[in-house]
Structure formats: structure tokens, C-alpha cells
Amino acid sequence: MSVNIPRLKKGVVGTLEAVAQEIAAMAPACDTVAFITSAAAFAFVLTPLAFLLAMVTMFIEVNTLYHLSKRHASAGGYYGYVATAFGSFPAIITGLMYPVYQIASTAAIPVYVAGIVLPGVLHYFWGITLPGWVWIAFITFFILFPIFLAMIGIRPQMKYIRYAALTEVAFLAITSLIIILKAPDNTINVFNPFAWNSVYGSCWNKIGGPMAGLGLGMVFGLTSFIGYGGSAPLGEEAKNSRAITKALMLGVFVVGVVLTEVAYALTVGWGINNMTSFASCGIPGIVVYTEFLGIAGGLLLALFAFNSAFSDSVAMQSNAGRVYFAMGRDGILPKFFSYVHPKWVTPSKSLLFVGISASALALASGFIVGYFAGTSPSQLIYCPATSKPVFCALSATFDYLTTIALVGFIVAHFINNTAVMVLFARLKERHYGMNKIIHPFLHYILPAIATIIFAFVLYESIWPPVFPVTQAVITGVSVLIFSIIYTAWIRVKKPEAYRMAGKTVNIVEEERREQARV
């Protein structure tokens, strides 16, 4: 292999660090104050079911990434997986869509956490009123400062994320269990979509019924898992490729169980018959924690949410930057993206591009979506941050950005699931005994089930039209169409780069060659 190929530093990420990257990228504390709140605006009392189904879907998806990660590891992540299993055309589309949903999700975080949660916490506990423009100032803290941390090296990034992520999930698991044990409204009926028509039927009828409400709730249930697969782009820097495979399996299980537990705790803590007021509160999770665990509990959740937003931004931007780096190295993107900083040994230019893109997207979406939500730019800047115009504008912007992320997320996983099926169809392996049953189940049936669930959620986000979710889907599809056209252009104009897309570096193959020599 040519020594001129840009490489990242190998052997600095172990299994624990890779698991922490998975957890940090999924940001469970941030999901608690943001995504669960947005899901409840549509699913109401079915919010725990929306997160349970999202967890099951993502756990099924573990099977897909498990098989793909056993055959490829590099900074390209999914881009490399699909190239090895499926081919160049779908790989390039995946490589283009993956960073888009990471960037959109990163852009959504300061809009909600700095624009809604922070002002809400200060007003709720101390009566302090912040100006509406505060979310703009905090873009620097939640996007640009994390990108600097990602740029200066993988070691300090991993050290920070390891302690932050593991402490975060432990806090959520323990505190939500306490709330469940104290709550008077515990009932298994929160997992029954047909048990609540007398309470929420009129609300659900406006959007197409309880299944539509559940589907829209799952939009935010699934997007709370955006970041899953966050360890995949670390494949080039891992101590060995098996560390990534283990992290993919452990990360989604830990976060999935904890988020379902938290969604249930907040629902029964708020009151199963009162969920119409949950989302409009702005900081309902912090209110529930304060009621059951005192001021210390509410403040700790807020602090963990802010820290989670920060570590999520570090992890997500780090992942997106590495995929752009891999595509630049392959010649799919301009060489600018393949630059490796000589001192930090990180794809610093790719990371800087991601940080600037996420910041610009957050700013533009806030003002544009806010305008169509009925809030003028002057209101968004000069009105109090806790006022209704600012809350409506920023919550709509958050929904818009996370749904764009959902489209990219679903496209990437559609292609991943298809890649597994294509891979094993091409291998034409012979199976005997129980393996004759297990083989089609793991390699065809489970990926197909996950794809069907993704399709259901995507359909519910389109029909009936709901602002700004439907508009976000249109935006995401537009990006997908551009990705297809760009890939077709690469195939014609850069045939050699197209042929080698996602295959320039594969740590799994390198490890196999090393073992063969030994």
C-alpha cells in the first residue's frame, strides 16, 4: 500500500473509548430534555412505546452493523462498510448522506438546549429572563468549541468523552428508577396505542389517529439514536477492528434501555392523563426531576443535559469530519478534505468544515423556520427567551433539523440493510443444521424488518402533512437527489476514484494480512 496515503493514528482507541463514543454521540441526557419532549408533542402518553420501538429497531440494526464491521474498518465508517459489501455507487451516496445527518443533528442541539432549556432552567429556578438571541451566542460553545477539541487530537477527546458518557448513563438509569418507584401512575397501558382514545383521541385525530401519533413520536425516538454507529469512523484509530464491533453492540443496548426507562419515568411522573401539557412546558423533564428528586435532581439533569450536548457535538462532528476525510482521500471529495494536521494527526480541515456548516445551518434554520412558524427575526432576537414566539420558533426549528437528520439516518440505514443482504447473496455460503435457519434470519429477515420500520416512520413523517416535519423531509430528499446526481457525475468524471471509493484503507484486511504473515 502506498505510503503517501493520508492515515490517522492507529491504536489510540480501545473498546471502552469506542463505547463511550457511541453513548456520547447518542447523548441520552440531551435526548431526555429535548427529543423526549418533542416526541411527546405527538405521541403523548405513548412516548415510552415510541422509544421502546425505536430501541427495538436500532437493536435489530445492530445485526446489520455487526456483520458489516467484521469486514471493514476505516475512517469512512458506513461509507467503507457499504463499499466493501455492496459497491461504489451506494457507498458514495451513504458517504454523502451520513455527514449531512450528523451536521443537521449537531445544528439542532444549540437551538433547543441553549434556546429553550437554558433560559427555561434559569427562569424556573431563579426567575432570570434571558434575551431571545442567547441561542445564537451559544453556537460558539456548543458547536465551534467542541470542533476545536476534536481537532487537537483524538486522545483528549476520548479522555473527556469516556468519563462524561459513562457517568451520564449511570445518572439517568438510577434517577429514572427512583422516579418510577415514587410515581403514582405506573401502568403497562402506556405501551398500548388503543387504550387512550377517550383521553387523547381528539388530539390524535388532528394528525391521523394514535398510530400516526406513535409514528411521529418515533421520528424523535429514532433521531435520539442518531450518533449510533458513532464508533465506526474511529476504525482507523482503534487498537483493533474488534473494538468497533463490540462498541456497536454495547452502545445501542445501553442507551436504548436507559432512554426507554427515562421516557416511561417522565410520562408517569408528569401524569398519564396530563401529557397534552408536557411538550408545551419547554423543560418538562427538569420539572419532573425537581418534583421527585428536589432542586438538586432538577439542576443535575440540566447540568448533565448541557454536558451531553457538548460531548454529543464533539462526537458527532468528529464522526462527520472523518467520513469527509476518507472521501477526500479517495478522491470523491476535493483533496482539501484529506488534509491531516502534522501535529494533531486529525483531519482538521474536514472538521473545521463540519463545524462551520453546522453553525451556518443552525443560524439559517432558526430564522427561516421561525419566520414560517409566525415569529419575525426581530422577535427572535429581542423578545424574552421564555416568551411564546421564541419558544414556538426554536421548537419548530429543532423539529425541522432533527427530521432532516432522520431522513439522512434512514437513507444510510436503508443502504446498510441492503448491503448486508447483497453481501451474503454474493458469498453464496452453504449452511447446515440450525445454521440453515439462522442464516436467512440474520442476513435477510432482520435487515428487512428494520427497513420496514424505518419506512413506516418516514411515511408517518410525510402524511398527513405536519409543519415543519413534512418540509424537513422534502429538504432531506432534495439532499438525497443531489447526492445521487453527484455520484453519477463522479462515476463518469473520476472512474478510478469511483472504483476505489471506500476501499483505499481497510483495517480488517490489513489485520488479516498481518496475521497471515505471522
From TrEMBL:
<feature type="transmembrane region" description="Helical">
    <location>
        <begin position="107"/>
        <end position="126"/>
    </location>
</feature>
<keyword id="KW-1133">Transmembrane helix</keyword>
<feature type="transmembrane region" description="Helical">
    <location>
        <begin position="78"/>
        <end position="100"/>
    </location>
</feature>
<dbReference type="GO" id="GO:0022857">
    <property type="term" value="F:transmembrane transporter activity"/>
</dbReference>
<keyword id="KW-0472">Membrane</keyword>
<feature type="transmembrane region" description="Helical">
    <location>
        <begin position="214"/>
        <end position="235"/>
    </location>
</feature>
<feature type="transmembrane region" description="Helical">
    <location>
        <begin position="471"/>
        <end position="490"/>
    </location>
</feature>
<keyword id="KW-1003">Cell membrane</keyword>
<feature type="transmembrane region" description="Helical">
    <location>
        <begin position="33"/>
        <end position="58"/>
    </location>
</feature>
<feature type="transmembrane region" description="Helical">
    <location>
        <begin position="351"/>
        <end position="372"/>
    </location>
</feature>
<protein>
    <submittedName>
        <fullName>Amino acid permease-associated region</fullName>
    </submittedName>
</protein>
<dbReference type="Pfam" id="PF13520">
    <property type="entry name" value="AA_permease_2"/>
</dbReference>
<feature type="transmembrane region" description="Helical">
    <location>
        <begin position="160"/>
        <end position="181"/>
    </location>
</feature>
<feature type="transmembrane region" description="Helical">
    <location>
        <begin position="404"/>
        <end position="425"/>
    </location>
</feature>
<feature type="transmembrane region" description="Helical">
    <location>
        <begin position="132"/>
        <end position="153"/>
    </location>
</feature>
<dbReference type="InterPro" id="IPR050367">
    <property type="entry name" value="APC_superfamily"/>
</dbReference>
<keyword id="KW-0812">Transmembrane</keyword>
<feature type="transmembrane region" description="Helical">
    <location>
        <begin position="286"/>
        <end position="306"/>
    </location>
</feature>
<feature type="transmembrane region" description="Helical">
    <location>
        <begin position="247"/>
        <end position="266"/>
    </location>
</feature>
<feature type="transmembrane region" description="Helical">
    <location>
        <begin position="437"/>
        <end position="459"/>
    </location>
</feature>
<dbReference type="GO" id="GO:0005886">
    <property type="term" value="C:plasma membrane"/>
</dbReference>
<dbReference type="InterPro" id="IPR002293">
    <property type="entry name" value="AA/rel_permease1"/>
</dbReference>
